[in-house]
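Teaching note: in complex prediction, the entire set of molecules is handled at once rather than each chain in isolation. The prompt given to students was simply: 'Predict the structure of this complex.' The entities are:
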Amino acid sequence: MSDLQKVYVINGPNLNLLGTREPEIYGYDTLADIEQRCQALGREHGLEVEFLQSNHEGSIVDYIQQAIGNVTAIVINAGAYTHTSVAIHDALRAYQGYKIELHISNPHLREAFRHLSYISPASDAVVAGLGVSGYELAIEMLPEILAQE
Amino acid sequence: MADQAILILNGPGLSDLSSHDGTLTLADIEQQCIALGEKIGLSVDFRQYDDATELARCIIRELENHAGLLINPVSYAYAATTNPAPIEQALQLSADLNKPIIEVHLRNTFLPDSTIKHPLQAPASNIAFIAGLGARSYLLAMKAILQRISNSSEEDK
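The expected output is the structure of the full assembly:
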């Protein structure tokens, strides 16, 4: 058995378009590029990182439920469901591991309809506006955080 | 090459962290920031102000001499008696400098029991936001600033 700690990085709607959709906001890296870098970084730091993406709210709820009891931490970028989904909020509350809410841009600097997050109050920490490097920075810091939890 | 200097500004109430984060002191956080800075090549200019106007003045005066800014505004963002406006104006005015700015908080400010209502509003400056990692909110922000500085200096080449 591997002694790596398992981490899910869950991505919501439209994040499969990363690299092509509004690159001036979201950057030119694809989700697969980010996944590769995070997995390499994870291995260096004792983490097994699995990237998941869905455009469907219910699938994201399923991913979170799969994490219960199986995964040490979740990094979640719920995309636009951040601002609408009570179902994802509830699933996150049911998951007892460590949770980081992540956004590539800072939603609070954008349209007013992005200012409310249902994910934030169900998360331990919020990281927003660091570009796609936010994923790597969060993964790199996770082992330290988990050691202290 | 000499280390680049970043400015770390702390708002009111942070001189006494006992109510925020148990036994952690602001001096502890400063030490952790300096230690990380020595490792990654950033020198740290760490300050705390109890007055919003002074904090704002410091941003206006000092940001241009630093490679980036970390700001933990604490009560400016929520307290009825203090007004975040001077800080937000200073950040707006500094937007042209195009320096990385990150708002940091020790606790997750979106938890139901948080007294902080919303992040700083300074749409012109591209502020990032990190909350809930304790002192590591600062450390993560430092690493993010370093990355941003190194990326933009590569683009300059």
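Point out the following to students. Chain B has a mean pLDDT of 86. Chain B has five helices and five strands.
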